[in-house]
Specification:
about 120 residues, mainly alpha, elongated, about 60% helix
Length: about 120
Amino acid sequence: MLSETVEDRRAWPGGELVSELSIAAQAIGIGEAALAAALGDGQSIAQVACRNGVKPHRVVTALVSRVVADVAAEIRRGDLSADQVRWLVALATWRAEDQVASTFPPIEFSAGFYSTIPIGIA
């Protein structure tokens, strides 16, 4: 069964927690900092992958593979039905494809940003 409590999640060994950024960077063959910088500049993971000679689908496959690996024990024990596994893979694929294709605009704050927030709003 999947961990459902915060306490269970806190008990996980730190080495098992892998960020999606690190998975994508490894699939592309670059460092996390380089990928983060490119994303911060408004590029998509797909653009970074192509610029580095990697097909974006390879990154999608790596992200989906990690999701499946994370629930492999539950699959082996039979805790997840075949329909649940298909749904999980479909959802993970949809999410990974969206992540790889999306761009994230840089966050910019103007000098007057804070002066436009009304005082007294909690």
